[in-house]
């Protein structure tokens, strides 16, 4: 019982943290599930479902604040949505899944430590490159059970295609669309979320309301980012060790 309480608190805290920067939190949820030894058969469906609600609420707040520009989104989702569905339909063996997930968690750590506050002047998007990047991110999003925003965000900032708030808005809706497509693919393969998914959704919604307000009001969750980065780092090494 005590272990379950810590698990639920971790999910709640993760939803606050990620929604503050326009993310759904799938990489965090997957890391927590790995730490609590959740069956991999339930991990993707559960993480994508939580993504859908948490990132959706986060997007709503960033959209209302005027940070969303559809022209920034369209090139990335042109192929990412169908590719996410295809990626989710892959039946990845547990060993390969743990290795790939561990690598993506390491990428998430780098994103948290170095790209949470970056700001650059924006420049026009390279459309062919954006379409290709969206397709690749969509495929791996479905295969691993993430929304892809944890990778898209630093790319947008590094390329100078969007500022921080625009990046948060684009990442949020990118995650929502890819997660919805990924869920359909995962369910088509017969994988189901955890039995406690409705409780997790409730915690995720509550956390996302808090987190998106923090992000909108420019209250930085930097210290939480640092804390979670160490959790993700530990989880990634655990995955490598158990693979």
What does this structure look like?
By secondary structure, this protein is mainly α. It has one domain (2-242). The protein is 77% helix and 0% strand. The protein is built from 10 helices and no strands. The protein has helices spanning 2-19, 26-35, 40-64, 70-88, 94-114, 127-144, 149-159, 164-188, 197-216, 222-242. Helix 2 crosses helix 10 (222-242) and helix 7 runs antiparallel to helix 8 (164-188). The longest helix is centred in the N-terminal third of the chain and has 25 residues, at 40-64. The protein is globular and about 50 Å long.
Please specify the SSE layout and strand pairing.
Elements: H1 2-19, H2 26-35, H3 40-64, H4 70-88, H5 94-114, H6 127-144, H7 149-159, H8 164-188, H9 197-216, H10 222-242
Q: What fraction strand?
A: under 5%
Whole-number mean pLDDT:
82
Number of strands: 0
Largest sheet: none
- Estimated radius of gyration: 16 Å
Shape: globular
Number of domains: 1
Structural class: mainly alpha
Residue runs with pLDDT of under 50 for 5 or more positions: none
Along the chain, the helix and strand elements come as HHHHHHHHHH
C-alpha end-to-end distance: 27 Å
Q: Helix amount, in percent?
A: over 70%
Q: Specify the number of helices.
A: 10
């Amino acid at each position: 019982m005590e272990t379950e309480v810590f698990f639920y608190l971790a999910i709640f805290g993760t939803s606050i943290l990620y929604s503050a920067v326009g993310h759904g939190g799938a990489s965090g949820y997957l890391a927590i599930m790995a730490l609590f030894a959740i069956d991999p058969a339930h991990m993707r469906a559960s993480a994508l479902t939580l993504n859908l609600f948490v990132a959706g609420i986060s997007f709503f707040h960033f959209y209302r604040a005027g940070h969303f520009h559809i022209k920034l989104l369209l090139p990335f989702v042109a192929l990412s949505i169908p590719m996410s569905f295809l990626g989710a339909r892959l039946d990845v063996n547990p060993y390969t899944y743990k290795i790939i997930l561990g690598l993506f968690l390491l990428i998430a750590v780098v994103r948290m430590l170095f790209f949470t506050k970056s700001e650059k002047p924006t420049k026009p998007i390279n459309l062919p490159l954006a379409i290709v990047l969206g397709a690749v991110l969509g495929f791996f999003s479905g295969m691993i059970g993430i929304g892809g925003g944890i990778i898209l965000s630093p790319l947008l900032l590094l390329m100078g295609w969007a500022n921080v708030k625009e990046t948060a808005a684009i990442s949020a809706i990118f995650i929502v669309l890819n997660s919805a497509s990924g869920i359909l693919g995962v369910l088509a393969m017969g994988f189901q979320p955890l039995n406690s998914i409705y409780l997790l959704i409730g915690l995720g919604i509550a956390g996302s309301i808090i987190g998106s307000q923090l992000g909108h009001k420019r209250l930085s969750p930097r210290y939480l980012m640092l804390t979670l980065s160490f959790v993700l780092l530990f989880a990634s090494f655990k995955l490598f060790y158990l693979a």
